[in-house]
Amino acid sequence: MTQQHTQKKAQQQRDDLTGEHVVGDVGQVVLACLFAATWIADTFFFQYSTFLNQYVLLGVRIPFGGVLLVLSGYLARTGLSIVFGKERKKPGVIRKSVFSVVRHPVYLSEILLYLGLLMLSISLAAAVVWIIAIGFLHYISRYEERLLLARFGEDYEQYMREVPMWIPRLRKR
Q1: Does a structural domain hold residue 49?
Q2: Which residues contact 125 (CB under 8 A, 6 or more apart)?
Q3: Is residue 20 part of a domain?
Q4: Angle at CA of residue 155, ends 86 and 87, nearest 5°
Q5: CA dist., res. 54 & res. 31, Å (int)
Q6: Could you give the angle at the alpha carbon of 107 between the alpha carbons of 152 and 48, nearest 5°?
Q7: pLDDT at 11
C-alpha cells in the first residue's frame, strides 16, 4: 500500500484528519514490544544493566516513576479523545487542552510511559530502546507536521511558533 493511498484512505474515513506516516503505527508497536521485552527481561531475569538501581533509592524512583506514568496516561487519553473523539465539521489546527501545551501530546505520552517504567527499574538496555523510540517518534512527528503545514499553511506555522514540539514552556510568549 503506498503512502498516498494510505493518506487518501484515512481522509475518506474522516475528512477532519490529516494523516500519518505509513510505518508510524507499526513502528510504535514494534518499539513498544522491544522496550517491554528488554525492560522485563533485564529487570526481572538477567539484571545485566540494572546496577544503577542500587544508587537511586526506591523511595525516589517509585514516586517519580508513578507521576510520569499518570502524566503519560493523562496525555494519551486526553490527546486521543480530542483527535479521534468526535468528527469536526470544519477541519483545522487543534489548539485546545493538551495541544495548547505541546504539539505532540500523544507521542510525548509514549516517551513518558517508557521513562516512568525506567524510573521504576533503571535498565540501561531498555534506556537504549527508549532513546531509539524518541528518535523514531521525532521522525514521524516531523513527517506529520509537513502534512499539517501542507494542509493548513500559515495557521499551522503560527501554531508551531506558539506551541513547543515536546517540552512545555514555563511561561507563555
Answers
A1: no
A2: 38, 42, 48, 49
A3: no
A4: 10
A5: 27
A6: 155
A7: 43
d(CA 62, CA 122): 11
- Residue 148 domain-assigned? yes
The set of cell numbers assigned to 105 is 501530546
Cα–Cα distance measured from residue 41 to residue 107, given in angstroms and rounded to the nearest whole number: 25
Q: Which residue from 81, 85, 82 is spatially nearest to 96, judged by alpha carbons?
A: 82
Going from the C-alpha of 166 to that of each of 31, 51, 89, 126, 144, the distances in angstroms are 19, 30, 28, 21, 14
**How many domains does the chain divide into?**
1
- What whole-number distance in Å separates Cα of residue 149 and Cα of residue 116? 32
Residue for cell digits 523514531? 136
Q: Is residue 38 part of a domain?
A: no
User: pLDDT tens across 44-90, in order?
Assistant: 999 999 999 999 999 999 999 999 999 999 999 999 999 888 766 78
Q: Grid coordinates representing 116?
A: 516512568
Q: How far apart are the first and last CA of the chain?
A: 42
Cα 162 to the center of its chain, rounded Å: 19
Range of the domain at 80: 57-86+95-166
